[in-house]
C-alpha cells in the first residue's frame, strides 16, 4: 500500500512517501503481521528504522485485535509529521531546513530551488557554447545538426 502524508487535496505538498507491506500469517490476529517498508522517498534510514520499530512494538501490544488500519494510520501520521525531505540536495549536498524553498520532481527527488535554477542556467549556457563549437562554417554536417 502506497502512503502519503495527509495534505488534503493539495497533492503538490506531499514531499514524502513510502510503500507499506504487511504479511499476515494464518494465525493473524493472534500473531502480529510482518511489516516491511519499501520505496521510501524523502525519508532517511534512521527515520524509517524508528517507524518500523514502533510499528512492530505496537503490533505486539495490539495482538488479538484487528490492527492493520491502526498501523496504516500510524504510518500516515508519521509521514504527515515528517513531511519534509530528510535527504540532501544533490547539487550543494546540504540538507533541507524548514525555511528552504525546494523543488520536488514527480519521482520524489529534491533540489533547493536556488541550486536547481543555477544548475539549469549553467547547462543552458554550456549548451550554447557546445552548439557554437560544433556549428563551424566549414562543417556541413555540423550545420545540418544545429538547425
How would you describe this structure in keywords?
147 residues; alpha+beta; Ubiquitin Conjugating Enzyme; Herpes Virus-1; three-stranded antiparallel beta sheet; two-stranded antiparallel sheet; 4 helices; 16% strand; disordered C terminus
The assigned structural class equals alpha+beta
The end-to-end distance, rounded to whole angstroms, is 48 Å
The pLDDT mean sits at 85
The CATH H-level superfamily of the largest domain is Ubiquitin Conjugating Enzyme
Q: How many β-strands, per DSSP? A: 5
Task: Give the gist of this structure.
The chain has 147 residues and is α+β, with helices and mostly antiparallel strands. Helix content is 40%, strand content 16%.
Care to describe what's here?
- With 147 residues, the protein is α+β, with helices and mostly antiparallel strands.
- The chain has four helices and five strands; from the N terminus they run βββααββαα.
- The chain folds into two domains: 2-86, Ubiquitin Conjugating Enzyme, CATH 3.10.110.10; 87-147, Herpes Virus-1 (2-Layer Sandwich), CATH 3.30.40.10.
- The strands form two sheets. Strands 1-2-3 form a three-stranded antiparallel sheet. Strands 4-5 form a two-stranded antiparallel ribbon.
- Helix 1 (45-61) packs antiparallel against helix 2 (68-81).
Give the secondary structure arrangement, pairings included.
Layout: E1 2-3, E2 17-23, E3 34-41, H1 45-61, H2 68-81, E4 102-104, E5 110-112, H3 113-134, H4 140-145
Antiparallel strand pairs: 1-2, 2-3, 4-5
Helix pairs in contact: 1-2
